[in-house]
Amino acid sequence: MDCKISEPVVGPRSEDTLPASVSTAVKVVIVGGFGVGKTTLVGSVSEIRPLTTEETMTQAGVGVDDIVGVERKTETTVAMDFGRISLSSELVLYLFGTPGQQRFWFLWNGLFEGALGAVVLIDTRRLDDSFDVIGRLEERGLPFVVAINAFPDAPAYPMSDLRAAMDLPDDVPMVDCDARDRASSRDALLTLMRYLYALTTTASEPR
């Protein structure tokens, strides 16, 4: 007697299925230097099980990756992080977290395709890492907001001083953020959406 082995059912989990009420989906990217908390933010705020591409750091990165300030970090994103959050019953955000090490930055162009905006995560202990990140966004013309991630041992500076150090225009929003906290991460994303809406409104006004 033949015995058939049933094939496993492949597909999204029921809790990951997009609600039927959704009418608009927006792609945003979470960018920043190495170890600023991009994977943590996507994981804390995503309503679905996030996709991560973290790999154990090896000796191959010694002398290549700058780990000053994040010496205890043992894993790193090598491709992207992915998550989803519903801001309303009609609007969802697809979140794409970029790899932080510069040797993986060639992947950014693909991740930026179709994105409406970005959240730049900043670690004040390693503020210099943000300069190239912001420069790349400005060169591409991608709107962004800056979120200062909360690290226990990170120095605190007035927002005005940080804005001046990063040479940010006055209209680019800056917010405090704790990437470990869902509500705080959601607020950073809402800040981006409000900024994008304001840009759209301004662009449509008659001159």
TrEMBL record:
Pfam families: ATP_bind_1. This is ATP-binding protein. CDD domains: Ras_like_GTPase (cd00882). InterPro entries: Gliding_Motility_GTPase (IPR052705), Gpn (IPR004130), P-loop_NTPase (IPR027417). The keyword GTP-binding applies. GO terms for molecular function: ATP binding; GTP binding; hydrolase activity. Belongs to the GPN-loop GTPase family. Keywords: ATP-binding, GTP-binding, Hydrolase, Nucleotide-binding. The keyword Heme does not apply.
